Every structure is written in structure tokens, then in C-alpha cells.
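Section 5: illustrative case.
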């Protein structure tokens, strides 16, 4: 079928059906300590070292809610255009799993922190709004580590370091209709959460995980089909592949006269297939009830306004401002607002220069290319944004040619020095004095009489040859525009 297996369904059969997709996204908040205790949340510590009686679920240990986690959750909700419920309640979600030592998860059920938001996606030039049903806070479980392949030597170890790390769960409305829309939704969600700095959303570290609810129905039908949940999709690529496979699997079941079963499934990226894990639980299976050891969460007007005041400019607003303020192309503005760090770097450089469009080209081209080759992020750039802005200004003022700028840029990367410093030390400043350029031009013309005759006989394209020779003779320091002007006077 899809995702690595050839589809057995004809396109016209698939086209009869409408997929309906909703995503449940779990995001680890970027707090320094866990949600109900003071244990650190850092990734990569030796197993079972960042633990205490609270996150181990030992008898008599009482949780205390982390204020920073609530603030970050509110920030995330505001960024996703949600309505904040100023009174919400924590609840126990009861289920057994080896890496859940309490035997329950502290989450929220019928009184979540926020609801009724949306995320806007853009796909093929069309903007679509995907609803956010709810956003609530909860603690994470630990992690089961499996080793061995045969039953005789297969072992499962439990690392509880992740137990109690603060999560938000973001539940979308069933507004998504294709795997491409799901991919775009998750991309936009990740971008917004990173912009407000509530999470790194590092999928390799498990900071962003996704479950997908998938069903299909005949086009034109009013009632949704039976859904299956595909759990623990830990990459954007696997999300799209799993959805494509699951959509075709369900269509095949219906077309063969069967019925789709409500269940939880897992995706095997090696096979490109989903497989059944267990029957899908309903809310009553978890026996939710209010958490007796924690008071309800109350967010006052003043606290909410203080959080709102700290909110940064969001990606969509920043992109629009970049288009209007700096005259960027749509594509350039999209790239430059892909992360907050990149947007901040560009804007600082643009404000330090006289040509924001040229700055955009340098950032997206030379700088990002060099950083990518070194495996570095924009935050690790050895060139300060102000110094990139100065480089562009030197070019626009005619004090530095584009050719020389390309030679100086690697030296800026290597040393972090300003372009002006390198220019002065190496005597590379652009020659924009006609009196200094004329002797060089005279020498070039005298050395190439054949090309002079060609120009005067009408072959004006030879002018480029002369410019190149002058630039070579001046070690690239001649002002190209001035060279062109002097050459024309001397040749005509």
C-alpha cells in the first residue's frame, strides 16, 4: 500500500472516500524542573537519577504544581488562539503501564486549561484554519527500553527520569483531510511553540510526539467513519507515511465488505505499515476523577495579562511585517521567519544595513550555506548580525565590490572580525578614485589592441572582457561601475 508498499487500490476507488484526521500532540514544556516536584528535566542523564519520591509515586509523597509550567502552557494556548479557562481542574487518569509508577497520570479532563483555538496552514497557495479543541496540562510517564529479539533473551528496562516532566496535550478538531494537511499543521504548530519558547519541540528527544485519529467516509456522507488511533509518531515523515497507509488500509477493509474496528495501532517505519496494538479505550475506561492532592488552577486577570504582555510577535505577524517593512519576497519572508532565532538575526542585520533585501540574500545564501556545512545553527554564527549588516552597507556604498565581499566573507566566518577591520588590515578597500583607476585601464587597453578594434567596430560585448581584465589587474578592488564609465569614455 502507501509508504514503501505498492498500493493495491485503484485511484478511482481511493477517490470515492474522504479521510478525516485529527491529531493529538504532546509537547514537553521547557521548564528546568518537573511539573509536580523539583527534579531536573534535562535530557540524557543516567537512567533513574533525576527522580524523587513524588515522581516515583511513593506513598505519602505530595505533588506541588510548577507555576512556570502553567505560565508556559498559557503562553502556548494564547499563541494557538485559544480561550483561556481561568478556572481549570487537574484529574487522575487511571491506567497501568510499567513506566507509570503511580498507576495513574495527573492530567485534565472535563475542565481543561484552554479550548477553542486554531492553527492556520498554507498549502498550495490556499490558507486553511484547523481548529484546536483543547489544550491541557499533564505529567509525562517514564520510558520502557527493550533489548533482545528472542523471547528467551528479551528484557525490558524502565527509565523513570522522564516521569513527571511537564506536558501540554493539544487536541485538534477533525478538520484535517489529507496527510499533507496533517504535515502542514504539525509544522505550523511546532513553529509557533518554538517562537514563544515554551518548548524546543525536539522530536529526537521526545519533546514533541503525535498520535493521529484516522477515519474514512464516502464523499458526501454526513457521518464520520469508525476511527483508529495511530500512536507515537515521532517524526513528520513517519506521520505522513502512517496516515497514507492507514487511509488506504481502511478503504480496503470497507471495499472488501468488512468493518473498520476502533482500535489503537502502531506504525512500523521499516515495513511502512500500521499494526494493531490494542482495542481503543474510551474515557470511562480511565476512571477520571478530580486530583485530591492538588487544588484547582485559578488564573487571575492580572496574571493572565502579565503572561500576555510577555508574548513575542508570532510568525504570521512577523512575516507580514517583514513583507511590508523590508520589501521582501513572499518566499524570503517565509524562510526568514521559520524560526525566531533566524528572524531576530535577519532583523538585527537589516537594521544595521542600508539594503535589507541584500541582507536577506546573504543570510539565506552564503551564511546559512556555510553554517549548514559546519552543522551549526544560526545561533552559533561566528558573524554577528550587525557585522553582516555592515558588510552589505560597504557594498552598497561602493567601498567594497561584490567580488571582494565574497573573498572577505570566509575570513569573517573564520575570525568573527568586522569587514572593515579585514579591509584595512589587508588593504582591500575598493578603489573608487578615477585618477587611481585610469592608469590601470590604460595598461589594459594598451595590452589588448585587437579587442579595442573589435569594440570600435561594433562588438560592444567586448566591454565585459575589459572590465574583467581591469578587475584582475586591481586584485578585484576596482569599482566596477566606475570602471565601466571610464572604459566607455576611452573607447568611444
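Designed sequence:
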Amino acid at each position: 500500500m502507501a509508504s514503501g508498499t505498492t498500493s493495491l487500490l485503484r485511484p478511482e476507488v481511493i477517490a470515492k472516500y474522504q479521510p478525516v484526521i485529527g491529531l493529538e500532540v504532546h509537547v514537553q514544556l521547557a521548564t528546568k524542573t518537573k511539573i509536580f516536584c523539583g527534579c531536573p528535566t534535562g535530557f540524557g542523564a543516567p537512567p533513574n537519577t533525576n527522580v524523587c519520591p513524588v515522581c516515583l509515586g511513593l506513598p505519602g509523597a505530595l505533588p506541588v504544581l510548577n507555576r512556570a509550567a502553567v505560565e508556559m502552557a498559557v503562553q502556548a494556548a494564547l499563541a494557538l488562539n485559544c480561550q483561556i479557562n481561568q478556572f481549570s481542574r487537574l484529574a487522575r487518569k487511571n491506567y497501568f503501564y510499567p513506566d507509570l509508577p503511580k498507576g495513574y497520570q495527573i492530567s485534565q479532563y472535563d475542565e481543561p486549561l484552554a479550548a477553542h483555538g486554531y492553527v492556520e496552514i498554507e498549502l498550495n497557495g490556499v490558507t486553511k484554519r484547523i481548529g484546536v479543541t483543547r489544550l491541557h496540562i499533564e505529567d509525562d510517564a517514564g520510558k520502557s527500553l527493550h533489548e533482545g529479539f528472542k523471547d528467551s533473551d528479551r528484557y525490558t528496562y524502565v527509565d523513570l527520569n522522564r516521569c513527571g516532566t511537564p506536558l501540554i496535550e493539544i487536541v485538534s478538531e477533525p478538520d484535517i483531510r489529507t496527510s499533507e494537511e496533517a504535515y502542514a499543521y504539525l509544522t505550523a504548530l511546532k513553529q509557533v511553540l518554538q517562537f514563544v519558547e515554551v518548548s524546543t519541540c525536539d522530536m529526537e528527544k521526545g519533546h514533541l510526539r503525535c498520535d493521529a485519529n484516522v477515519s474514512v467516509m464516502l464523499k458526501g456522507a454526513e457521518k464520520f467513519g469508525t476511527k483508529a488511533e495511530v500512536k507515537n509518531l515521532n517524526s513528520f515523515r513517519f506521520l505522513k507515511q502512517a496516515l497514507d497507509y492507514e487511509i488506504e488500509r481502511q478503504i480496503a477493509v470497507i471495499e472488501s465488505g468488512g468493518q473498520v474496528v476502533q482500535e489503537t495501532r502502531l506504525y512500523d517505519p521499516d515495513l511502512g505499515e500500521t499494526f494493531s496494538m490494542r482495542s481503543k479505550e474510551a474515557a470511562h475506561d480511565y476512571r477520571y476523577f478530580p486530583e485530591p492532592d492538588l487544588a484547582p488552577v485559578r488564573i487571575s486577570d492580572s496574571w493572565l495579562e502579565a503572561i500576555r504582555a510577555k508574548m513575542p510577535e508570532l510568525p504570521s505577524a512577523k512575516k507580514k511585517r517583514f513583507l511590508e517593512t523590508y520589501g521582501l519576497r513572499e518566499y524570503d519572508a517565509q524562510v526568514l521567519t521559520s524560526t525566531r532565532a533566524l528572524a531576530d538575526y535577519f532583523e538585527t542585520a537589516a537594521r544595521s544595513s542600508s539594503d535589507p533585501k541584500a541582507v536577506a540574500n546573504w543570510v539565506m545564501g552564503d551564511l546559512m550555506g556555510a553554517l549548514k556545512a559546519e552543522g551549526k545553527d544560526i545561533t552559533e554564527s561566528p558573524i554577528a548580525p550587525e557585522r553582516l549588516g555592515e558588510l552589505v552597507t560597504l557594498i552598497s556604498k561602493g567601498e567594497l565590490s561584490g567580488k571582494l565581499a565574497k573573498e572577505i566573507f570566509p575570513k569573517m566566518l573564520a575570525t568573527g572580525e568586522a569587514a572593515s577591520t579585514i579591509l584595512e588590515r589587508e588593504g582591500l578597500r575598493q578603489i573608487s578614485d578615477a585618477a587611481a583607476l585610469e592608469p590601470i585601464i590604460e595598461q589594459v587597453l594598451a595590452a589588448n589592441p585587437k579587442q579595442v578594434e573589435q569594440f570600435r567596430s561594433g562588438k560592444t560585448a567586448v566591454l565585459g572582457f575589459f572590465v574583467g581584465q581591469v578587475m584582475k589587474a586591481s586584485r578585484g578592488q576596482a569599482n566596477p561601475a566606475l570602471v565601466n564609465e571610464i572604459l566607455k569614455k576611452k573607447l568611444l
